[in-house]
Amino acid sequence: MGHLGDSGHHIGGGMTAGVLDGVLRNRGDGGRPLPFEPTSFDVELLAAVEGAVVRGIPLAVVLPLPGTAAPLLLGAASLVGAVLRTRSLAVEVAVASTNLTSRTLYDRLYFENQRLADFIPRGAVDVGGAARLVGKPARDSGGRLYLVNQLSRLDSWSGRLAALVIDASAATSTAVARTLRRPDLSAAVVYLTADPFDPALELVRNTGGLIWGWDAPALTDLAASALRDRNLCARPLVAEVELLASAGRSDVVVWGLDDGERSSLDDALAALWRALGQLSGAYRLIAGSVYGASEAIRWVWSVYNSLTSLPVSPRRYDAQLGISPYAVRLGESVSTARAFARNVGGEAGQRWYDVANALDAALDAADQEEKLDRVLAWLNERVAENVPATLVLRNRAAVNAVTNALDESTASPVGWPDVVSVTTIADVTAGRTSMSGVGEICLPGPLPRSRSGLLALPPASRVRVIAAGPFEARRAEQQAVSARSALSAIRAEAVRQSSVRLGVPAEPSDQETDGSQRVHVLSSGRAAAVVPTSVGDARDNPWEPFDLDIVAMLQRTIAAGGSADEETQAVAPARVRGSAATSAVEVLAISVRMGDETGVLLAEPNDLITRRRGETVQRVAAKSLVPDDVVVLVDYAARHDLLTAVTEKLSESPTYAPLAQLVAFWKARAARLRNSNLTYRDILRRMRGTSLTSEQTIGTWVRGVVDGPQKPEDVRRFAEAVRDTQLLNEAERVGWALRTLHAVHRRIGRWLSAQIAGVQMRRDEGLVDADLGIHVSDLLESVTTHAVISIDRAVHQAPANAVGLVLPQPDALRLLTSAS
b/e for 644-655, b at 16 or more Cβ within 10 A? Predict the structure, then answer.
C-alpha cells in the first residue's frame, strides 16, 4: 500500500470509521491537517451512503442546506473507505459536480498526515470520454478521484469505480436514468439533491434504489456534535451545528397585503397564470405541427418566473441585459408571443394571443414597481435590527437592477449593504454565497419547483416571501407547505424502508406533519387569513399551470441540450418561422465549417469568438476567421465566451469571488463612454503618465473588444480622464482583477497550445494559483477546440437560438435557407 496505509490499525474500517477515527482530515488555510468533527447529521449521512455503497444499492439523498461541499466530501470519504477495506491505493471514485471549490478542497484533504492527492490524484474526463490526470502526484499507485462537471462525461467512459457520487447540478434526469441503466457500471450510485420534488428520485426508486432525507424535526434532533474530544478548530463534514439547527427551526413567512387591499400586479399575474394553463390545453396541437413548440413554452414560463420574482420595473431589468440577442428582454416578450401566435394559427394560436395580452397587462402592472416599497420596508427592518440578511433574486441582471434601485432610493438607509446582501438563487444553491450568520432570507415572489429546498430547509432561521396579493400569497403558502410535507414523507420513507435495507438506524421525527406548522401568512406584518382569488389550478398545483405532459416535454427539451438553469438571463427566445419574426427571434449569421466532422458553426459576423493562432489566444469578430484557425468553444457553443466562462468559474472560489464582479463593473463603466462627447483621442490625451500611444486601444476598452488595460495603473488614469469617481474609488481593485484575468488568459493560451500539440507541460504551467491548487484544466472542462476548414461570409438570417451552436451541416443549411 505504500506509506499511506502504514497505520494498519485502521484497516478493516469503512468510510464512516474513516471520518470518526480521524483518518480523513482537512488542512485549513495554512494550518496543519485536522480531523473532522462530524455532527450527528454527518454520521447518519455517512452511514446511509456507506450502507448503499457496500450493498451496491442506488441511493438518492435529499440534502438540507443546498450549496455545501457534500458531493466532494462524500466522494473522498468513499475513497478512504475503499482504501481501508481493500488495503489498496488502486481504487477509483467519481464525483459529478459543477463546483470548482470541490476541486481545490480535495487537494487540501489528508489521509492522516499525508496529502491524499499525492497518492490518489485527481482525474478528469473530457467531452470525448478520455480520462486524464490533473497535476503530478508524488506517488501514483493507480487510484483516482475523477471530478467531472457533467455526468454525461462518463457515458462513454468505462473505468471500474468503487462509488459514483452525482450532484443534481451536474446531471439531467435523462442522464441519471441512462447511468442507472448501464449494465457495465459496477459502482453504487449516490445521487444528491436539495429538491424534494426532483424527478430523479422516482428514477432511483424504479431501479430498486432507496431514498434518504430529513425533515425539520429530524434535522433539529441531529444538529449536535457526534464527538466531544476533538480539536476546537476542527470542522464538521457538511455544515456547522448552528446552521443545521437554524434550518431545523426555520419558519416561512408569506407577506401579503392588508385585508381587502387589491394589487394590479397580483391580478395581472393571476390572469397570465390562467392564460398559460389554457395554453397547455392546446399543447398537443402545437407540439404536433410547429417546430420548437416546447422551447416556446419553456421561454414563456421563464418570462413569467422573471416577472413574479422581480421587485423593480421590467425596463430597469432589461437595461442590465446588455446587447446580447440571446437575452430574454421582458419588454420584447409581448411581440414575441404575438409572432408565435400568428405562425401557429388556429385554436393554439388564439391561446398564444391570450398569453400575449396577459403579458402586456402584467408588464404594465410591473412597471409600477409595487413590490419595491415592500422590499425597502423589509430592508429597513433588517438594518434597524442589525442582523445579517440576504435578498435572493432570480439572476445577475435582477441583482444589478435591484441593487441600483435600492442605492438610488431615498428610503434606503446609508450602509445598508453592510447588513443586507443581494444575490442570486443560483449563487445560494451552489454555495457561492456564504450564508453563515444570515438570520433571514427574502424572496420577492414564489419560487420555481426546482428551488423548493429554500422553502423546506433553508440556510437561515426565516424565509420571507413577498407576495403581490392574494393570488401570489396563496401560491407561496402552498409551495412552502407542499415542500415541507414532501420532506416529511421522504423522512418517513427513510425510517420505514431505507434504514431497514441499509442496516442503518434512523429515528423517526418527533412529529410527522403536513408541513403547515412552520408556514405563516402575514398581512402588513399581522397574522391574516388570506382568501385566494379564483385561480383555478393554482389551488391544486402551486408550482406551474402546466399538465404533466408539458413538464415531461420540458424535461426532454432540457435533456436534448437546453438550459436547465431557470435563473440564467440568456434563455434563447422562442423559434418563430415566417415573416412575422421579430429582431428578438432572428439574427444575421454567417457559417463556419469546422473540422473533425463536427459540423457548421452559425455565428453573427461581429460576435466575439475565442480564436487560437499559434500560442496566442484572442477574442475576435467571427467574420475574421480564416482556414486553419482554431476556434475554442464552451460546451460546443460559441455564444458563451471562453473568458466569460473562466471568470465565472473562478468566481466560485472564495479567493477569486470578487473578480468577476469587478471585471463586469469595469466593463459597465467603460461602456458608458459610448454615448459620451469625449473622443478616444481626448481620453488618451488626458491619461497622464500612460505609455499607451494608440487611441484605438481606448476604443477596444469602450466597445468591450478586450477586457481592459494590461497595466493596472491605466485603470486609474482612465477614471481620472473621464472623471468617473465610482471607477476611481475602485481603480486599485479593478486593476488587480484585470491583471489576474490577463495572467489566466496567457496561461490558457499556453495550455491550449500544449494540449493541441501533445506537449507535456511542466507541473507549474498548468496552475492558475499554486496556493489553492486551481489548474487551468479545472477551468476548461467544458472547452473544445475545432479547426476552421472554411468560412462562408455570405450573411443570412437564422433563428437566434441556433446561432452560436455547432450543428450538423444539413441542419445548419436548412435553417439558413428557411430564414433567408
Answer: bbbbbbbbbbee
Instruction: Tell me the C-alpha to C-alpha distance, in Å, between residue 230 and each of 19, 34, 184, 218, 227.
Output: 12, 9, 42, 24, 7
User: From residue 266, how far is each of 260, 397, 534, 646, 680 by CA, in Å?
Assistant: 13, 23, 12, 40, 48
Q: What is the DSSP string of 707-719?
A: -S-SSTHHHHHHH
Cβ-based neighbour number of residue 258 at 10 Å: 10
C-beta of residue 60 within 8 angstroms of C-beta of residue 114 = no
Q: pLDDT tens digits, residue range 69-109?
A: 899 999 999 999 989 888 888 899 999 988 767 777 888 89
User: What is the biggest distance separating any 2 CA atoms in the chain, rounded to whole angstroms?
Assistant: 77
Instruction: Tell me the three cell numbers of residue 278.
Output: 389554457
Question: Strands across the sheet with 109-111, in order?
Answer: 33-35, 24-27, 109-111, 114-115
> Model's pTM, two decimal places?
0.80
Q: Quick check: 781 and 568 in contact, CB under 8 A? A: no
* Sequence-distant (≥ 6) Cβ neighbours of residue 384 within 8 angstroms: none
- How many whole angstroms separate alpha carbon 286 and alpha carbon 618? 43
Q: Measuring CA to CA, which residue among 784, 658, 778 is closest to residue 102?
A: 778
Query: Contact 67/98 with Cβ under 8 angstroms?
Result: no
Give the count of alpha carbons within 13 A of 418, CB side only: 7
C-alpha cell read off for 759: 506537449
**Nine-digit cell at 289?**
405541427
